[in-house]
User: Fold this.
Amino acid sequence: MGSAGSGRNIATTRRRPRAGNDVGQREITSLSRLGTRSCLVCLLCDNGIPGESRNGWSLSHFSPPLNPRAILDKKRRKKLQKVVDDHFSYRRYEDDDVEVKEAGKCGFGAFAVRRFLPGELVIEVTGQLLKKSEYDGSDYVMELSDELYLEPTTPGAFLNHSCSPNCELIQLTDESLGVVAICNIEPGTELTFDYGWEAFDWTPKCHCGTANCWGWVVALDEVKKMKKLAKRRSKS
Assistant:
């Protein structure tokens, strides 16, 4: 969902390798076909194996050191994110109905490729189903039921909030939501809906840019409460 609710991460999280002979053995097995000591040493070095273990070819009982480059500072993260965006399709999507592309201050957004009429289903939002009791939710999560959250996949994950939306989010099936047009939507128009969030200290400011924008990503009946919270925050 762009800024306040911008994707889902298609990449899976892998468990950190345990230190020990099994790790080293997997490295040796996968690299054994290279046939040269120099290539093997370079690749082991790149994988964080200590120098004394490399030189003696003793890969048992080592503890991989912390790689400072693994901790991304803001500048490096931005640089590497550009590589991901330019060469991979995590934040790129296009079909005959919608496409995902950059949306200014909102990061990325979903845009209409063709015209949609009022009441027309724009997309079905599907994704990972998670129990509320076991999951706090991300910036992109959508409420599916009293018990379940839906972590949407692309393009649904990139639908941004607007104080004057052109779409509405509805319950479509037991496992999915639907985005329905509530007005005429021309090709090239960003597809948006009202997130309807409650007012909290962490609630972000809205960047929808509409004439009636109420300033924060909240439901209209939460604006008064949000203003009080913002005033209290400015004094502290």
